[in-house]
């Protein structure tokens, strides 16, 4: 591995493999970005249309999205 290769590893900060829920959430977020959604309100709307609920089974809101992303980032 060359010294600059460490910057090319997209999983360098990962502590464990993602859970199935995290994979599904990431895929839904990527699909939203690919569809041209780049604002929080649009992202929340896209997540709700994708039928991927929050871990507690609720619909997404801007508030619970922020809280969930912060939880996942911790």
From TrEMBL:
Pfam families assigned to the protein according to its UniProt record, in alphabetical order: HTH_62 (PF20552)
Region Disordered: start-end pairs: 1-21
Biased composition (Basic and acidic residues): 1-12
This protein's name: Recombinase-like domain-containing protein
Entry-linked InterPro entries: HTH_62
Domain Recombinase-like: 4-74
């Amino acid at each position: 591995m060359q010294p600059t290769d460490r910057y090319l590893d997209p999983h360098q900060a990962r502590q464990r493999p993602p859970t199935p829920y995290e994979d599904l959430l990431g895929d839904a977020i990527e699909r939203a970005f690919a569809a041209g959604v780049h604002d929080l309100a649009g992202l929340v709307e896209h997540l709700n249309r994708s039928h991927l609920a929050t871990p507690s089974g609720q619909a997404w809101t801007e508030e619970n999205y922020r809280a969930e992303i912060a939880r996942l980032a911790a």
